[in-house]
Every structure is written in C-alpha cells, then in structure tokens.
Fold each of these.
Amino acid sequence: GLNPDEGRIINGHTPVKEINGEDPIKADGKMLVIDGGFSKAYQSTTGIAGYTLLYNSFGMQLVAHQQFNAKEKILSEGIDELSIKRVVDKELQRKKIRDTNKGKELQAQIDILKMLMHDRYLD
C-alpha cells in the first residue's frame, strides 16, 4: 500500500479557476488538480495555460504556466512568458536511492555479496 504521509491523489481534466483564486493544491497537499487550462478554450475560464507536475529526488513541485499570447510580443518587447512554481512538499529533504523500496533491495544484495566475498577471500 501507499504511505499515507507521502501518498497523493493527482486529478486532471477538472479546470482550476485560478482567475477566481482557486488553488490546485487541496486537502493540505494530499490532492493535486493539475488541469488548469492547457487548452486555449479553457484559458479564459482558468486564467492560466495549465500546469506541469514535477517530481524528482528533491520532491514535488507544481508549475503554473501563464497564457502564451504571441511570439511577436516576446520578440518585440523582450518579455518572456512567466511560469510560477509552487512547492507541494513542505520539507524538501532529498530522497536518495537507498530511501526507496528498490534501494533497500539493492542494499540487501550488496550485503549478501559482501558476505560472500568475505567468506571466499578472507577465510
């Protein structure tokens, strides 16, 4: 099963109306609604151009993308489109391989190999 301290529900296909102050991070960070209007048809309703969910060894982040207006505007005014990152994890303690289930399996195999090497070469 899932660890209740780390488990999350990730929901899509439900537009988040950031334009009205709605937050895509719900239930104290346990539920994420990541469909914020990537489709142009929803952007006037949501006020943004969607989300990207990032997850790596540093934790989970949600990036909100602003609407892309026109390449001409970027080229003429030098204004880059803006993306805003939100930290989902409260404490970003980097997760290492040894902290995962697979890491524990690998460590057990390493321990067995060390024991076999010790028995073979040191006895």
Amino acid sequence: MMVEELVTAGVSLACVGGVYVMSAARVVKQYERGVVFRLGRLRSKVRGPGFTMIVPFVDRLQKVNMQIVTMPVPAQEGITRDNVTVRVDAVVYFKVTSPADAVVRVEDYRFAVSQMAQTSLRSIIGKSELDDLLSDREKLNQGLELMIDSPAVEWGVSIDRVEIKDVSLPETMKRSMARQAEADRERRARVINADAELQASKKLAEAAQEMAETPSALQLRLLQTVVAVAAEKNSTLVLPFPVELLRFLERAQQGPGPQPVAPQPSQSPPRQPPSVPQRLSEWAQRPVPENAPQSSADDRQPVQEQLPSRVPRLDPDPEGLSFGQD
C-alpha cells in the first residue's frame, strides 16, 4: 500500500515538474533579445539567445527583434521654399540598440519612428528648393536622418539611413522643366557648333596660307577633287583649260607658211568703189556732146530733176540721202 502511494506521489510530482518546466522554459532566437518583468518590475538582465528559464506566473518575458527594419514612409505633399508643390516618399532603415528602452520608453517604437519620419520629411520639403530635391538628395538624406535619429535615440532605436525614393511634380511643372531643358540643350549645341566653326575657319586659314606658299599643293588638291568627283556617276565635270595651250594647238594645226607681209608706210590703202551719190554727181557734171539736140530755156531743167523718180535725189545735207517722187 505504501509503495503504491509513493509511486502515485512520484508520478504526481513528475507531472507537476513537467508542467512547471514547460511553463518556465523559454527559447530566444539568435536575432532576438528577451526583456523580463517580474511582478511588473523590469529586470536589469536582458536574456540572450538560446534556452532560458523564468518563474511561472511571476515573470513575463517580452522578446524584441534586433534586426534592421525597413519601413516605407508614405508620400508627403508639401511646398518647397521656391513655392513648388511636390510629393515626396522615402524609406527608413533602423534597428533596436537597447531592448529595455524600446519596450519601456515608448509604447510602439515602430509607429513612433514612422510618425517622426513623416513629420521630418514634410519639414525637409519646406526648407529645401526644388533643385535640391532633384539633384542633391544625398545631403537631404543626411539631414532627414539626423532629424529622425535625435528623438529615436531615447527610444533605444538607431536610424541606420534614410533615403528619398521619389519626387512627384505637377504636370505643368514637368512641361516647364522639359522646355527649360530643351532650351538649355539647344544653347549648348549652338555653342559647340560655333566653337567647331571657329576651329574649322582657323584650320582653313592655315591651309590656305600653306597652299599659297606652295603652289604645287594647290594643284594636288585640285587633282584630288577631280578624282573624287569623277568617281560619282551621272556627274558633269568642268575643268579649267589654259589659254596658252589652246594657242599652241592652233599654231600647230596651221603649220609653217609664209608670214603675212605688213603694208609699207609709202603704199596707199586700196581705193574704195565710189558710192551712188558720187556716181550721180560725176554723171551730171560730164560735158554735153556737140551733136546733142538743143533745148529751149524753158525746157531746161536740172539734170537731177530729169532723172527717174526712183533715182535718189542729191540732198545738200551731207549726212544722208533723201528719196521722193516728182
């Protein structure tokens, strides 16, 4: 009878011990730390990773994740210092450095860090200009990190880094920036073209000077141009031809012969045949034959009036002839 009671008591104690161990045993993972509260009071010792024991119904173990947490910050809309409305979203990387402070000093450190990041982001937008948000993000990231990290240190949280992901602009501002960028590109293109033309003109001037000093270089350049143009099809090539060569060919075709004799100074030039007025004047002044019939004074008329009507009448005007009907 005594043996049975002892066995029963042993089994009962074993069951109670098993229940006690199961309720007191805790396992803390490698990336976690355990904060123990005994009767509501924080124990100074933080439990590390592995197997640990607490007093059942007296101690309470709260685990804290020590990994780096990635928290996206919702897009915040604000007005920059140069009066441009933008929407900016960011991401915050942080981790817990003091598990006890993260549990005791703040109710929910994740929510607290999120709210602090949003307010800091709006503050950064109001203090910055649009060009800084678009081009100098590294400086803004550092300033935003300092603004969030200052109060987070008291919560046992360390901000690893903060990055601005995107900056959204209004459509009107996008079009204005596009026009500005296009104008800037055109200005730089014109400057580059002007510099290129200046350098080309200098090189051409140097080449012209060299060719002027060396005439054979100009001839070689002409031959190169002729070869380049002749390589193309359906092209008409016009080449300058020296006049001296044409004269030489003309003399060669005529062959050797008597040279024309120049007129002597004593010889008179050949006589030109008399003109019609001269012939008429000579005919009117010739003598009348003796056997010609005599005419009365009334019948006498100037010889010029007895000429046919189509014979030109002498005009005292030496500049020309006058024609008429009698």
Amino acid sequence: MDTQTHLEDLSNEIFFEIFDYLHALDIFTAFASLNKRISSVLQLISLRVIVSIIHCRNQIDFLSSHLTFHSHQVISIKINDTIRDDTSMISLLFNRHNFIN
C-alpha cells in the first residue's frame, strides 16, 4: 500500500497558506511551471513583490515577465533603500506594468 503524499495531493487551501509566506519571485521561481493545477492556483493568490539589492537583473526580468500575467494580483510592493535610486532596475520592473493605487 502506497502511503506517500505527493505535492499534488495537497489541497488548494494548503497552497494558499504556503504562498502567503513567500514573495512573488520565490513563488514564480519554485512553482510557476510545475503543472496546470498549480499554475491555476497561482492565478488566485495575492502577491507581495520585494525588490532588493540581492536580486540581480535576471531575477528582476524573470519576475517582471511573470507579472505581465499576474499584475492584478499584486497587493504590496517593497523596494529596498539601496536600489531605490537605481532607475534602470526600477524602470525594468515598472515600465512594463500599470499598477493602480
């Protein structure tokens, strides 16, 4: 008898709880292309975007490409003080999207 639990066996509510502890970049990096079910769960969650000095340009570009389809789910954006004045990094993320306050 197989008593192993697989990721796909978890309920959507468990995924919502897990994703509530993660930031958008972490969610998209780890879960974006696993399967159709998880992709559909990603359409339903709220996203917290954090941009910090530890994120390289490739990571910001990756995040920005996913926000093309998920920008309506963003509930908060935090920009680290050390990159606040880096206009190239800021424009890379925000010129592609129309966030409404």
Amino acid sequence: LTDNWPSILEICHYFQELHVIDGIPQLIFVRSNYTIETVEAERISVDHVAHLKPSDGGSAATQLAAHLTGMHSAIKMLNSRIRVVHQYLQAMQRGDIPLDNSLLRQVLSLLRRLPAMESEKFQDDFLMEFNDTLLMTYLMMFTNCSSTMNELVDKFNTTYDRQSRRGGRTAFI
C-alpha cells in the first residue's frame, strides 16, 4: 500500500427491496452508499500480511526487521532532540542562558499540537484504533491461512487425481 492512498475507500453495496409496480410485486436492487474508514496501522498490517508467504525465504521478515530498525532510529533521534530542547529549557529556567521568548513560543506551539494523552477521549480513540488494528490483523491472518489451506487442498487433490487415473484411490475433496 502506498502513502498516497486515500484513508476512505468508497464502495457500492446493493440490497433488494420489494416494490409493487403496476400491481406486480418485483424485487429491485437499491444502491446503498457507505464508506469504510481505515487508519495507517490497519493498512500496514494488511500490507504486511498480504505479502507474507512461507516460500519467501525470510524476505518478509527481513523487510519487517528493516522497517522496525528504521522506526527505532527515528524514535531514537526524536528522543535525543527532545532531550536537547529539555536541557536548553532547564538551562534557561536556571538562568544559565538568557530567556528567548521567540523560542519559548515555538516550543509552546509544538506542545499544543501534541495530543493530550491523559484525556478520556484520547484513551477511547486509542483503544478503538488498537482494537480495530488487532481485528484487521486477525482477519488478514485468517485470510492468509485460508489461502494456504486452499493451496494444500489443491495439491492434495492433484496428487490423488493422478493416482486415480492409474487405478488408485479417488480424490479426497
């Protein structure tokens, strides 16, 4: 999945309604529009599971490790920059460095853009997104397992089909 995908996918859903037209009951299809909203975590999990194959030879695990290493490096760099700003503000508070009102306004602006992590709405949103992500991951793993099982059944049927042509057993499924 790419970054330029929209976060809302539009699909069409039709359902049947019974209408009486000229005294004759008829079933007609009526279009029902709705949207499915996705978040980045869901797209990442769907993309990861969709490309995960046992025959990859570890390439999916290698890609995941590279992705996690990149995230770790980004978090480490962010942490070091926050530490520098924190030390600078502490030095300003102690009086070691003269007050810089422009810098203080920029830090305040940055802090106001951060989500309030102790609010009840944040906790509700976080838990909702977390549960949605877990559900999507579970469903994608279930789909992947179903696909693998289907491949196994196809191979099994192919094997027994060859034997039945030679007078062996018949197909299992």
